[in-house]
TrEMBL record:
The protein's name: Chord-domain-containing protein
Native organism: Rhizophlyctis rosea
InterPro entries documented for this protein: CHORD_dom, CHRD1, CS_dom, HSP20-like_chaperone
Domain CS span(s) in chain numbering: 207-296
Alphabetized UniProt keyword annotations: Metal-binding, Repeat, Zinc
Compositional bias of kind Basic and acidic residues: 110-122
Matches recorded under SUPFAM superfamilies: HSP20-like chaperones
A Gene Ontology molecular function term of the record: metal ion binding
Keyword DNA damage: no
Entry-linked CDD domains: p23_CS_SGT1_like
Length: 334
């Protein structure tokens, strides 16, 4: 059975059942910027590489076996037009040979940062129920489950994580690096083992993101963490003079953590929080009357909220700022 080569598809198909709406794929190119991953043809962006591979296609068409082509790039210092050569370390080199790059640029993460359980040591439970057509979960393997014999077949995969550095792409578990994303997807696995068709179970709760906002008066900082269905007994907020720790647990077991140093000192004993239906409202009692430019410490501050002409009413854009000595600024010019 043929396998579709459209970007983001990779599904097996039969030409007899192929039509103009059979394939959902990406017509653009991968975009990796400041930790975000997505496609130039659609707006969805994710941070995890596995989630990037799962972004559904935004273009509908026919399945194909023709390799996707990209417009030729203009020769640059980073991606010249010449064909690559492979050096002794298996790294593709474009253009004239130059001084060997620093090894650290492509080194995998230190051993201390590796997961406690290695990918090759994780297997499907013996009693796992696997649906026909389920794809192997190991990186770079696309084998589908066809029956019990699939459990015994050899799997060739990558045990590390994707590494993208200064235009090069590869895996932390092996040395080969390429420039084109399509070539990266075709890098042969460097580990051998058995297929894994189920996701490994984890005791760690899922972490979610909660939006938060804040405003201030002369005496307080009020922070709103927007969260619904909070498990009140398990949710904790800890105040210290220079730090705030918010640990939210939801009724479905998911968690949200917001730990931050504070821009200015507070009075922990006079600070408080309240868990409401749609948010957690946190009130930090300032230890002085100074205006905060942000919740966390911030260098190079050029503007801040001011508190009226006498320092008593919380306003924005007033003529006088209250500073650390807790006095209107004009009194400090004497």
């Amino acid at each position: 059975m043929a396998v579709c080569t459209n970007k983001g598809c990779g599904q097996p198909f039969e030409e007899a059942h192929n039509n103009d709406t059979s394939c959902e794929y990406h017509s653009g190119a991968p975009v990796f910027h400041e930790g975000l991953k997505g496609w130039s043809c659609c707006s969805k962006k994710v941070t995890d590489f596995d989630d990037f591979l799962k972004i559904p296609g935004c273009t509908v068409g026919r399945h194909t076996t023709v390799a996707p082509t990209n417009p030729p790039a203009k020769p640059t210092a980073e991606a010249p037009s010449q064909k690559p050569t492979v050096d002794a370390n298996g790294v593709e080199v474009y253009g004239k040979p130059s001084a060997p790059p620093a090894t650290a640029a492509f080194e995998p993460k230190p051993a201390a940062e590796e997961p406690k359980v290695k990918e090759e040591d994780v297997h499907d439970p013996a009693d796992a129920v696997i649906a026909q057509g389920t794809k192997c979960k190991r990186p770079s393997c696309k084998k589908e489950y066809t029956g019990e014999e699939s459990r015994q077949e050899e799997c060739v995969f990558h045990s590390g994580t994707p590494v993208f550095h200064e235009g090069s792409k590869g895996w932390s578990c092996c040395s080969r690096k390429v420039l084109e994303f399509d070539e990266f997807l075709r890098i042969q696995g460097c580990k051998n083992g058995k297929h894994r068709f189920t996701e490994p179970k984890s005791d760690a709760p899922e972490t979610v993101h909660c939006r938060h906002d804040w405003y201030q008066t002369q005496n307080s900082i009020i922070i709103s963490v927007f969260a619904k269905k909070v498990d009140k007994p398990k949710t904790k907020v800890v105040f210290t003079t220079e730090e705030l720790k918010v640990d939210v647990e939801f009724q479905d077991g998911k968690i949200f953590k917001f730990h931050t140093p504070l821009s200015q000192p507070i009075e922990p004993e006079n600070s408080k929080y309240e868990i409401l239906t749609t948010k957690i409202e946190i009130t930090l009692k300032k230890a002085n009357g100074i205006s905060w430019p942000s919740i966390e410490p911030k260098a190079g501050v050029t503007s801040w909220t001011t508190f009226g002409t006498t320092g008593t009413v919380g306003t924005v854009g007033a003529k006088e700022a209250v500073v650390a000595t807790d006095a209107p600024i004009h009194l400090l010019r004497r």
